[in-house]
Design brief:
Two copies of one chain form a homodimer. The first copy, chain A, has 431 residues and is α/β, with parallel strands linked by helices. Helices cover 45% and strands 15% of the residues of chain A. In chain A, helix 14 links the parallel strand 12 and strand 13. In chain A, helix 6 runs parallel beside helix 7, helix 10 crosses helix 11 and helix 10 packs across helix 12. The first copy, chain A, starts with a strand and ends with a helix. The mean pLDDT of chain A is 96. At the A-B interface, helix 5, strand 3, helix 10, helix 14 and strand 13 of A face helix 5, strand 3, helix 10, helix 14 and strand 13 of B. Strand 13 of chain A pairs parallel with strand 14 of chain B, so a sheet runs across the interface.
Chain lengths: 431, 431
């Protein structure tokens, strides 16, 4: 953990060092991924079954018939879940749905004084594939965060893939898929699942876009199939930035810093405060809380290697620092938190006031928890309904409006050396 | 050019062949591009000046002071342009601006029955870099199509880079930049320009996102810097699909097919019609028009290698074919063109009726001419104001609403093995 202070003479350098810290562990799996994709393209189900039975240890009897997870298996999983968890998922799904419904974009059409009609029409993607990791990173909340906006967008076919290493699958993941309205589920993972979604096999129809988190193999495969299909962002390690003043509760702030740090040893938790007392109290509170946290090993490593406490003179000084960090999650626990939030340009999601811990947003707040990491909030947004729709523009000229606009188009076409463009207009005007 | 007919027994295969035709010429420049980017990162202006003077043949005296194109040079360029072309550009800029203003998204905020306030805020990117190719592909219309939406979005700093091979620069490109409100212009191109925009040098501040077309070097560089900055789509060769019935004018259709074909030998022009007579007449009209077209060599190669005429029984049969092609440009010159257009899901831009040649949309229609190619209209949209903005979600709980939602968040956190998440909520509720 680093402690830096805007009053230090070398503050600019220390802050820049914090910004450029490399947290991604890049595994070079690109060659292997290329081979797997080529195999699935060439041999379809046969390759898919072979890779799945080998990587997930499903035995020699695994076959194409078992790729799809049937409705009976889903129903059994829902039965097996604690009712309390199902109820919590249902509440989360409803709130996520309500929030995302407001994101549905409007079509537009207007006819101008010349008689030109121009506008656009939004349509849902025809199909989407949702990747869900296996093992401990198999989060039912992420199933909701990816599938619910797709359903709200109106995507008619939502496919989910999830690997079942040693045949084990978190039943809550199936319950979440059921609640979110996923149409098809396949027990596959890794680069082979991404290839199947992008190119299709006898059992799995291809999709138009692939979303969802995954390990290095999945990320490399998504990069490779991009163009053939759409992909969402490639997410890096999670991060939180907390702005808090001297009135904030140090134990609450410490809990939030550790909630982020427990994700991953490469996660990052940063506190910016104008209070030396709070800085000191939070540091002690983190140490205290670590003594009883189940994932303390992970959280301690993250806090040690990437954590930071930054002291500033006042929060006006903090705003440009926030914009340079462009945090995935920004908690503001200061006086006039909302006013301060309006000065921030770059952040994935903002959590206002001391009663809005980031974890509420991970589950039941309503906004999406799939957010831009690694400073990409400077140029991108969290997942939403627009990621599952696309816009087609529409233009219609009357003979009269073509006569009005045509000469300018002809001039510009000729000035660009594109006589064929000019002629396609001129021929309609007898010019 | 291929002629296929939905009545042919092998239609499915012929159509699939048309869909999977590979039109991209992939030059392998990735290693060279990696070296150039590393050089610019390590040596800044020095590397930028060296590459620019060498690749663009600007002589040994070229220096960092000359990288920026000054206001005087821009003013002189505007003076040097034909007034008619300036007027046409001005009309185009105004119409593009009006169309894109309607795309500005609304912020949202709502407080629910529990007292949770949730919403989002759109903000403009802090800076954008616009790549403009040199030589014959240096299109002033593309400057407008990229820069005007950025200005409408409210981007406070718009930077343009354009190479000047042998010191030559199309004055209309500078005039378009001036009209569109570009703030800074640099005479650089290639991978070195992309690197300078992404990482910055002493002369050029880095930007948050890079947009605009370019050759294989530029495309490879954009792929490499993605993540450090945002990028737009990587555009492939242009394409048009025309739906026309027996009432359409074959000479007009031929002109539109050739306007597309003259772009590039890898461009693609396709006609779908229910009329054998029209199919035949268009084929002849294309041959006639080619005899006098200045860029006939390019257009003829494109039409020969990638052109197609598809006969269908009726236009209902055409709709799923259109959706599978997912054309960049779709012209509909049939009876009830608008009704037919509403059945189409996948297209970048639609041009309705016989008086809306695609070239009008390239210049003065209003909608953007930067559109998804190579079937990517299945999952992406043309350029617009949203490409220059990003959304920050905002969540605020009161103590009471945290009490209402908290237990579900605690349940889900624990079910995902994230006790630290659960505790960050529980600690605020004394649970």
């Amino acid at each position: 953990m680093v402690r830096i202070d805007s009053r230090d003479p070398d503050f600019a350098q220390s802050f820049a060092r914090l910004l450029t810290m490399k947290r991604e562990i890049s595994e070079d799996v690109d060659d292997a991924v290329r081979r797997i994709i080529a195999d699935v393209v060439a041999k379809g189900d046969e390759a898919l079954v072979e890779y799945t039975s080998r990587f997930d240890r499903l035995g020699a009897s695994f076959s194409a018939e078992r790729l799809r997870i049937g409705a009976d298996e889903v129903a059994a999983a829902v039965e097996a879940c604690p009712p309390e968890a199902i109820e919590a998922l249902r509440l989360a799904a409803e709130r996520i749905e309500t929030f995302h419904r407001a994101q549905k974009p409007a079509d537009h059409k207007a006819t101008d004084a010349l008689g030109v009609t121009a506008g656009w029409r939004w349509t849902a993607l025809e199909s989407v594939g949702l990747y869900v990791p296996g093992g401990t990173a198999s989060y039912p909340s992420s199933v909701l965060m990816n599938a619910v906006p797709a359903r709200v967008a109106g995507v008619p076919r939502i496919v989910m893939v999830v690997p079942t290493p040693d045949g084990i699958l978190n039943p809550l993941v199936l319950a979440a898929a059921h609640l979110a309205g996923v149409d098809e589920i396949y027990r596959i993972g890794g680069a082979q699942a991404v290839a199947a979604l992008a190119y299709g096999t006898a059992t799995i129809e291809p999709v138009a876009k692939i979303v969802g988190p995954g390990n290095a193999w999945v990320a490399a495969a998504k990069r490779r199939v991009f163009g053939q299909v759409g992909i969402d962002m490639i997410a890096g390690p999670s991060e939180v930035l907390i702005l808090a003043d001297g009135e904030a509760n140090p134990d609450w702030i410490a809990a939030d810093l550790l909630a982020q740090a427990e994700h991953d040893t490469a996660a990052q938790s940063v506190l910016i405060t104008d209070s030396g007392d709070l800085a000191e109290a939070v540091e002690k509170a983190v140490e205290r809380a670590l003594t009883t946290l189940p994932r303390a090993d992970i959280a301690r490593a993250s806090w040690r290697d990437y954590g930071a406490i930054i002291r500033v003179r006042d929060f006006d000084e903090a705003v440009p620092l926030v914009d340079r960090i462009a945090p995935e999650h920004l908690e503001i626990e200061t006086k006039d938190a909302e006013t301060l939030s309006l000065k921030v340009r770059n952040a994935g999601a903002i959590f206002l006031g001391s009663h809005t811990p980031e974890a509420i947003g991970d589950y039941v707040g309503g906004p999406n928890h799939v957010l831009p990491t690694a400073r990409s909030a400077r140029f991108s947004s969290g997942l939403g309904v627009l990621d599952f729709m696309k816009r087609t523009t529409v233009l219609a000229c009357t003979p009269e409006s073509l006569r009005a606009l045509g000469p300018a188009a002809i001039t510009l076409g000729r000035s660009e050396g594109l006589e064929g463009h000019a002629r396609s207009v001129a021929i309609r005007l007898n010019l």
